[in-house]
Write a structure and sequence with these properties.
Strand order of the largest sheet: 1-2
Number of helices: 10
Order of helices and strands: HEHHHHHHHHHE
Oligomer: single chain
Structural class: mainly alpha
Shape: globular
Number of domains: 1
Bound molecules: zinc ion
Length: about 250
Amino acid sequence: MVIFLFLVLHWYLSLFGQTFFLHRYAAHKMFTMNPFWEKFWYTYTWVMQGSSYLNARAYAILHRMHHAYSDTKEDPHTPHFFKEVFSMMWHTRKVYNGVLEGTWKVEEKFNKNYPVYPKIDKLADSWTMRILFGLSYVAFYYFFATAWWMYLFLPIHFLMGPIQGAVVNWAGHKYGYRNFDEKDHSKNTLIIDFLMLGELFQNNHHHAGARPNFAVKWWEFDPVYPVIRLLHALHIIRLVPLASSNR
Ligand SMILES: [Zn+2]
Ligand SMILES: [Zn+2]
């Protein structure tokens, strides 16, 4: 029971960092925040992703490429050029590392307006830190696991960030229904979105990329949007006013 709770908590707290901070803030700038809160959420995302920490700059650049070239050869993670999800993840990793190390040519239009904290990155992106996080998950299992098979969940903790990204990129461009006739293969995968905090309304999101609420129909629900409204009401973030056609 404790292990299951740990897995669920780690999953959602880490995913919140990815969807709220990396996706909706770093990549899309749907809202603004002051330097204190930016550093706070940057650190939050690092600690929650832990061993599978994703750099905000590289994430933002890859994600902007994804929107601009959705489901074409230039898309860093479309399921339509790969037979299974692992080869897609491997390709995404290649582009991500290239952007991070400066060996992948990044278009100027994608390469600005994202949070950068080199000191945090140096620590977060080091193998020492990644291994320490990994060992802390193993230690937790050592103390609380009540059966051997529970250890099979450990790889999910180790690779949390990329796994969550891959579920969205694979399922959200392959399975589900469409509300909008976009040029790509984006779909709304509503039946498993409870696992993905609104991220699987890909078709809605590709239709209106700057819109902070990924749900459109009355029967769709994006659980992160009320949290965004709350953080706005608390003045922790400021929602960017949208053109009325984008609401
Ligand atoms: Zn997409
Ligand atoms: Zn997006």
